[in-house]
């Protein structure tokens, strides 16, 4: 769900209008002369791509699980590279990507590049011997635009393979700004304030403060894992979180136990849940897509879910700072603490031909990040964000995208990737999901964590 640079490219533009010009600027037959968009902001032209040389007749295949309509902005973002180098980018989307990419790699038939959504899957692919090390230029871009934490996520056994690309923020609480305004409620800035707000809503509003759903077919239970990961970060800090994810400390050790109990103060509290659906046990049978919808009906007020949840509200819903629905950052213990749980995508290559390396380097730059953001602005209820420090925030038009980018790019943010996505499959996508569901329906914290610990592979 999630490095690299050699040379920094010319910054595209300081506005969405300037970036729009980029999509046509690179089609110049003579390679373009550069210049501005009339406001003095620089625009990219084919001079920015001269370092890659003439790649006419070359094709680079990309394989991904990002399908319609989210795939079109990717296709559009590569157009300047195609127009200016002569290369063709063949983007192939597949809903069965996560299963099929392993099949293809093991069969010796991988694509040139794949967009990998989890570090754990990256490690599995590296183990097939088909993934190639990231080029020096890509590594340099990640050093400049991303930082050590993100680069580490694309690194396996000390070798850097995959540059980060898109990102999502999971540390969010959805709410109704209009309801908050009407009741004089303030957005909390600490965990204590979040608990006080929950108590206030429970006492005064006539409905349960929280609503939730964790049903997701074979993946039922995964939203609880996000809750727990957020609270491990808050109870133990980033170092303990890392130790827990890598099993340097036991799954059922002190901090994880405190974290799940802290989650239980919300999700297993009959005074807090499950607004619009029923009692605590109804969380297990409510589809995660539906979990936050009662906010629109005034049946609950708070729903913890990632930035991508915006797509689940009906078309036409006013998702904005003063609208029907918006989100706030799930606070830390203090207002200064900024732990951020999230996910992302990683650009992983299986070939080292010059044209493949050229696309990788372009893809890991600030130039591509801004092109991709501009190409994504028209997606319904949310576009696309990245933790690339070269992103121009003025491009983002969707309020949730802006909020997410502000959180990711905050200099005080301590980002950690979704823990279950980095754990062995026997735990992260099996025991953790299943036992989290049993926990919601009555199993104790101790039994839940003991069973997940017992599922951890011996080697």
Automatic annotation (TrEMBL):
Q: Which domain of life is it from?
A: Bacteria
Q: Which InterPro entries match?
A: Bact_solute-bd_prot1
Q: Does the keyword Signal apply?
A: yes
The UniProt keywords, alphabetically, are: Signal, Transport
Annotated signal peptide: 1-27
- List, alphabetically, the SUPFAM superfamilies matched: Periplasmic binding protein-like II
Q: Which family does it belong to?
A: Belongs to the bacterial solute-binding protein 1 family.
* PANTHER family in the cross-refs: ARABINOSE-BINDING PROTEIN-RELATED (PTHR43649), OSMOPROTECTIVE COMPOUNDS-BINDING PROTEIN GGTB (PTHR43649:SF29)
Return the protein name.
Alpha-glucoside ABC transporter substrate-binding protein
Originating organism: Cellulomonas uda
